[in-house]
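Teaching assistant here, posting this on the class forum so everyone can see the example we discussed in section. The complex has two components, and the goal was to see what a joint structure prediction looks like when all of them are supplied at once.
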Amino acid sequence: MWFASPADASERLSAVDYLSDDSISTSVFLAGALGKPLLAEGPAGVGKTQLAKAVAETTGARLVRLQCYEGLDEARALYEWNYKKQLLRIQAGQGEDWDATHDDIFTEEFLLERPLLAAIRSETPVVLLIDEIDKADVEVEGLLLEVLSDYQVTIPELGTIAAVRRPYVVLSSNATRELSEALKRRCLYLHLEYPTPERERDIVLARVPSIEASLAEQLARTVATLRTLELKKAPSIAETIDWANTLLALGRTELDEEAIGATLGVVLKHASDQTRARKELAL
Amino acid sequence: MSLLDRHVGFVHALREAGLPVSPAEGLDAARALEVIDLAERESLRAAYAATLVKRPSHRPGFDTLFDLWFPASTTGLQAAREGGPDLETAAVPELRDRLAELLLEAGEANEGMNAFARAMVGRFGRQPAGPGRQNWFSYPVMRALSPETLMARLLAEVLGGQERGGLAEKVARQRIGENIGRFTEAVSTDVRRRIAEDSGIERIARSTVRPPLEQLDFLRVTKADLARLRREVHPLARRLAARLTVKHRLGHRGRLDFRRTVRASLSSGGVPLTTFNRPRRPHKPELVVLCDASDSVASFAHFTLLLTYALREQFAKVRAFGFVDTVDEITRFFVPGADVVEAMTRLTKEADMVRFGRTDYGHALEGFAERYGDSVGPKTSLLILGDARSNYQPPALDTLKRLARDARHAYWLNPEPTAQWDTGDSLATAYGGVVPMYECRNVAQLAAFIEELA
């Protein structure tokens, strides 16, 4: 068992400075209790990757991370045969007959573990983070289906390797493309949105302990207002924290029009967004 | 109703509202019910959402149905409050004071506000509807308490002498506005709950759930929907662009890559055992959009224009023309990095598209062919957006034929349902005979079309 109840999940996550809400804590708890992968989807910078890290940290499990990118394939995600070593082995054992060599070079010793296989075979508890799955090609999703529904991997030369203990799987996606229905069906779905001002204030206080509560409050409210404007890229939580650090470094204790105008570049990174914010907020 | 019946009924209602819930997902949800504390309503909601709702656009519909099938417990809540006025008997000004308090303090998931909303619906929401029948409405509640009129007072309280018009006011106004929205939502949720109690859940469920954003009819969107749609433009464009590139990459392979083939042949003694091909150049059409900008189809035209502009990199060149009864080029409003909202307002204000103010496709087409005819060439895809309702003016079919002949492809997107084509002053079939016409009523259909186009 990973967590005893949603309340337990929430408590233990906040112990490692990850502040959850009802839907996060319930999904995190259910993913452990039902043994299903958790698909966290949402805009960039709302703490999807951080969630997996926090789960690993609070449960004392090892974090295995598979970063997805265009062109990711089986050899990078699952396993690969170490063929250089195999060649050496064949050359070293000259004179042996074919069967012996064959049996020998397709063994554990020559297998290169990649993240998925490593997570499946691990003896200790593992949190498997499959990061930015939407960046990978569609075929990778097909590859994941076997791993995620049965927690097993088939290697033709070795047979099927089943999980010793089920890893806790978190998939993260920025929704740049629609994931396949088959993959979504096998996962629990958690849509992460920008937090409420109250939660964001607490997050800033937790992550930037030296900030004053009133400034954190102002910051969270201002960011919430910025997010209601029709911007190309709304500020993320990470950017709010950057903003808090910037204000601290500049020695500001008050977030007034002038302070915002001087540091707006920390949270808004499109010229048109900045123009819009200046106009709407009358900076 | 047993828990199982309720679960099955709820899943069924979700399917009826258009959420694709598979049997396997229904089972997952049932399994989740076993391990969570059913008395905790919010974690029950989260458990259902995690197992059944896999698209953010389906979430509002889900929440409405959840509130109907698993209503909040209402016993013993009113009595528990202390300090505030007695909600059953207090006069309206007192109630408004209490509401003002709630609007200032409330955050998300505020039980106090929900309880207050329930009590207010109980007091004001009942209206006689026909002889011997009662029904519940939210407008009498909102009229009695009129939370919007509290705004000025609350602002004065929050700002406490700070100057008006600045950032502080903007932030406070937004927060209070959000809380008013929450109160309105709480009232309508409770109204729905009471109606469901009186006349059965299924009846009300069918009429209250709005279709998800991508299924919303362009011609029926409200102003708020349009803002939400605009916010969807960039994510949607990104998703479409990703899908379009995938399609290009999987396409047939192109010409022989001589350099790579010869390079590879060196390892086999100059014999080219493996050949390499260049990936085929993606075909990028030039796009000319000619759009009806009259009020009847404005929201459709706006959204479509925005989307094609967001997809600019998928097309070699995009030019846009708008018309009501005269054509004007509107490309200049969509320079890269331009502000979406501003482009739209400037477009309606500054572009010269109106002569008499009644849509006239014939005159617009002739004007277009005359003034901008050279923009349509053998590489161009011509895209016409409009409902083909021309107020009984001559259609200028020959001009359209000529344009369609000059262009590489021509398409017509019509935001009206196919059943309404050719009714009244619609020239759908006449134009459709010249240029293939597609029904395009919502984002989903539009996305499917663009995928075909690029």
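For the discussion questions: The radius of gyration of chain B is 29 Å. Chain B has a mean pLDDT of 81. Think about how each of these relates to the inputs above.
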